[in-house]
Write a structure and sequence with these properties.
The protein is of the alpha+beta class and 146 residues long. The protein has a single domain, classed as Hotdog Thioesterase (Thiol Ester Dehydrase, Chain A, Roll). It has three helices and six strands; from the N terminus they run αβαβββββα. Strand 3 and strand 4 form a beta hairpin.
């Protein structure tokens, strides 16, 4: 499938792009994908990004990323059958958090369906408190996103 040029340009700015088939069971009583499924898709992309580029495995770590906040703007309803492309990038790096942008596109309709923002904090699992974003995370993100 070939998206229009504007969508292609938008897609190219994301290092993580997951193609996820929409399942019949993803739909709700209103015959479109249930709102919580979009957040699950965002989680899949977030974990892919973090484990592939930032932290490696998330098991047995003393300092790791945790989700502190998420916001979703639903734009176009996704329905079965379809395949979505879920794109993830770090949009902003602050001292104690990362603000991430996730976009969900419908392949069938060639449309942007949702924009999700995640705030990720660094968490010290030994001392049970938030921490500053580690310098090595910042350097890895800058290498990826630049």
């Amino acid at each position: 499938m070939i998206f229009n040029q504007d969508l292609m340009k938008d897609l190219e700015s994301y290092k993580i792009q997951l193609e996820i088939p929409v399942r019949w069971s993803d739909m709700d009583a209103f015959k479109h994908v249930n709102n919580v499924i979009y957040l699950q898709w965002a989680e899949m992309a977030r974990i892919e990004y973090l484990t592939k580029y930032i932290t490696g495995s998330l098991e047995n770590i003393s300092l790791g990323p945790i989700l502190a906040r998420q916001d979703c703007r639903y734009i176009f309803p996704v329905k079965f059958p379809d395949t979505v492309i879920v794109c993830f990038k770090v949009a902003e790096i602050q001292e104690d958090r990362l603000v991430c942008e996730i976009k969900v596109f419908s392949k069938k309709y060639e449309k942007l369906c949702a924009i999700i923002y995640n705030t990720i904090m660094a968490y010290d699992f030994i001392n049970l408190r938030k921490a500053e974003i580690p310098v090595d995370w910042v350097m890895k993100i800058q290498d990826i996103e630049d």
